[in-house]
Amino acid sequence: MGKTGGKSISFFGLVAMGIGCMLGTSWLLLTGTWLDTAGGPLNLAVAFLLCIIIELPFAFAYMEAIPMFPLPGGEVVYSYAAFGPRGGFAVGWAGILMNTIVFCWVDLAAISLLDELFPVLKETAVLYHVGDFPVTLPNLVLQLLLAGAILWVQIKGANVCASLAKIATVVLLVMCAVGLAVCFAHFDPAVYASDGGMEFDFAGSASLLSLLVFSVAGWETVSKAAADATGPAARKAGAALITCLILVTGILCLVSTAVAGCMPWTEAVGRTAPFADVLVSITGLPWVRLLFLVTAFVGAVGVMNSTLYSSAQMLYGLSRFALVSRKFAVLHPKYGTPVRCICFTAAFVVLTPFTGKLFFIPFINVASLTTIVMWVMSFAAVLWLRKTRSGLRRPVSMPGGKVTAVLGVLASVFLAGNILLPMSPGALSGLEYGLAAALAVLGWVLYQFRDRSVGAAEQEKLIFGDLLAEELPPTPCKISKK
Fold it and tell me: Helix or strand or coil: residue 198?
């Protein structure tokens, strides 16, 4: 990975991996949760609009960072260049946690889909209960088998991963497009406005925004996959990233809007797959629900593939850069992939099946927190490098200039406050704070076992190669006004 996976990834492969990581199952499984959290479809639409506005400055920063540092490691490289070893490790660990948590959550989601397809799975051989959630032997075995299959795909290399992502992406986009066309052909504004659907409450939008960080996250996967791209694909990695962000956010908002326009939004709350249920009510064909559940399962496989790729790629970067033990950097003798990194990150999912669905929502919120850390530090790194390493070559400048910089700072403060401040609408619960703290401690332990024999100069050489040697003489770096 990152020049270790053999064949390169095309531009469409980059887009497919980003979309595969973002779209997944949220569009089918979380529509009811989104409407409930927002308190209606109007609040939901506002939350999605805010989501794009808030995330664009971070995405624009990545557009500048990717070609500036066309190296394996993504955000680790950007933050190390700006803030040194601790900064590089902090953002790297946040990225690993974000992708690994999503991997675990989607494994749970995939089994929920199978439970809908085959109800006997959640009723047979109940081993015990975790709270209100049963843990059954079939579900436990299937979750581990699914994670093991994705593990095997990852070990085979980047080209296989991108191929799987392409298949999942095409299937998802086609099914979403067909479903949306049917729903909007039967859209009823009166249904959309029912049950207070047109009553606006900013607190509802702000509360949903914390969940949307999780649902829309994944476009930054392109920054890691770009290290496996060559030629035009490598040069257009930033465009691939923006394409993923806008396209998927738009699709998620349209799916939720379509549901609210065909079914009172309060009826969608509590349903596993309201989008599929709406299509069944419109067409009168029960097998449509089955088809969409299968499609969502394909999406889940795509997300698991993309997120495990990203987390293993970031851990491999930390190991190569001596920010964790160098033992993680061992490559597979045949496929040239970082097999220990893949196995370590995949190992988190081993515990997930034994907790039932207890962490279904907490996983979302903790993943949102780690995503915010990663985005904010990467954005700050780009701004800081403009002052401290103004001589670095920047083939692409952050669009928007000073306006983007100011908006990015405001977005950073808003996102952090919305999820961390106890009185905010999107604040973490006690369980979520505890889970985040435990994962932070695990990261601290890993950092203590880094290779301390590597000096600062050697570490920079490992990370940047000769890139910094090509740095131009320092000159004032002004943010262009565009």
Answer: coil
Distance between CA atoms of residues 126 and 28, nearest Å: 27
Rounded Cα gap, residues 167 and 318, in angstroms: 30
Q: What pLDDT shows up at residue 3? A: 45
pTM, to two decimals = 0.78
Predicted confidence (pLDDT) at residue 364 exceeds the cutoff of 90: no
Higher pLDDT: 401 or 357? It is 401
Identify how many contiguous H helices and E strands the chain contains and give both numbers. 20, 2
Contacts of 261 (CB under 8 A, 6+ apart): 41, 183, 184, 187, 188, 189, 191, 192
Is the pLDDT confidence value at 482 over 60?
no
Closest by CA position to 326, among listed 334, 338, 336, 310: 338
Torsion-angle region of 73 (φ positive above 0: left; ψ -120 to 50: alpha; else: beta):
left
> Is residue 165 predicted with pLDDT exceeding 60?
no
Percent of all residues in the chain with a pLDDT value above 90, rounded to a whole number: 20
d(CA 140, CA 397): 48
Residue type, 450: R
Closest CA to 106 of 353, 429, 433: 353
Produce one character per residue of 471-482: b if its CB has 16 or more CB atoms within 10 Å, e if not: eeeeeebeeeee
How far does CA 375 lie from the centroid of its chain?
Answer: 11
Helix 237-262 vs helix 274-283: crossing angle, to nearest 10:
60
Residue type, 117: L
- Tell me how far apart the alpha carbons of residues 304 and 312 are, in angstroms, rounded to a whole number: 12
The residue ranking higher by pLDDT, 180 or 162, is: 180
The SS3 of residue 9 is: strand
| Mean pLDDT value across the chain | 82
Distance, CA of 320 to CA of 323 (rounded, Å): 8
Element housing 276 (H / E): helix 274-283
